[in-house]
Design goal:
The protein contains 15 helices and 5 strands. By secondary structure, the protein is an alpha/beta fold. The chain has one domain: Rossmann fold. It has a 5-stranded parallel β-sheet, sandwiched between helices. α6 packs across α15. The protein is globular and about 45 Å long. It starts with a helix and ends in a 16-residue tail after the last helix.
């Protein structure tokens, strides 16, 4: 039975990949679907105390986005459309009088061990107030098993804690080339378990993208680039909108109640 289930998933994913290559109908090219990234689903478990202190004092806020190609922005039409740049714009909209710097430290193809080799220079040296650490995708597509007991990830978290920065982990994307892998959901669960054990925040990218597909019935071509792996402009923009919303809420607790739902991408 497991072999039949996997065969079905592989066939379904292959069909989805083929569909991504098809041109969109003329009306689909102009219509923009709602950005469904509900705050009640993505709300961070812990407040962001470092960011909160900077908001109160009015001091500039530095954010480092660490990760691989989906942090760098592969699949986006331009650097301006990657998620770190869109996030900077979204946060500025939330806090017009605050100065935000979002540093993109994504390098394509990297796994956690690769990132740790450049952690001191790429992350720690920047003295960030918040580190967004996207992990897991490359390990999944290479069939590398990573458990919640992985010491490399915990070493990175220890380095971030040592400088007093807030931490948000970001799990893999829900995309055809990821979900075809039998270890995909195990990776998502492992990252969630690590976040809980280490008492750090988690942005559930996999779940929100799955919602776009399963609940909102959006075709993968709406939010995934033609390579079947990376997000496209719409996907990065909606991700950034949701991420900005939960960062803003977590940095203002208990002043702001977690009741807002994102309804549409900004023009």
């Amino acid at each position: 039975m497991p072999g039949k289930v996997f065969a079905f998933r592989a066939a379904a994913a292959a069909t989805l990949l083929a569909a991504l290559a098809l041109p969109l109908p003329a009306n689909a090219q102009t219509a923009e679907p709602p950005c469904d990234a509900p705050l009640e689903m993505l709300r961070l478990a812990n407040p962001l105390s470092s960011v909160s202190h900077k908001l109160i004092s009015g001091a500039p806020i530095t954010i480092v986005a660490m990760g691989s190609s989906s942090t760098w922005g592969t699949g986006a039409s331009s650097p301006a459309a990657n998620y770190p740049n869109r996030l900077a714009a979204e946060l500025q909209a939330h806090f017009p009088h605050q100065t935000f710097t979002v540093l993109n430290r994504g390098v394509g193809g990297e796994e956690v061990d690769d990132m740790l080799k450049r952690f001191d220079a790429a992350v720690i040296a920047e003295k960030p107030d918040l580190v967004l650490w996207q992990i897991g995708t490359n390990s999944v597509i290479r069939d590398h098993v990573v458990s919640s007991r992985d010491t490399s990830l915990r070493e990175g978290l220890k380095k971030i804690r040592a400088i007093g920065a807030d931490i948000v982990l970001i799990d893999p994307q829900f995309a055809p080339k990821v979900i075809i892998k039998p270890e995909a959901e195990h990776m998502v669960e492992s990252i969630a378990m690590t976040a809980k054990q280490e008492n750090v925040d988690l942005f559930r990218r996999f779940d929100v993208m799955k919602r776009w597909s399963v609940v909102d019935k959006l075709p993968f071509g709406t939010f995934v680039s033609p390579d079947g792996l990376h997000m496209n402009d719409w996907g990065y923009a909606c991700m950034a909108k949701g991420l900005a919303s939960v960062i803003a809420e977590a940095a203002q607790r208990p002043v702001v109640a977690a009741t807002t739902t994102i309804s549409r991408l900004a023009p």
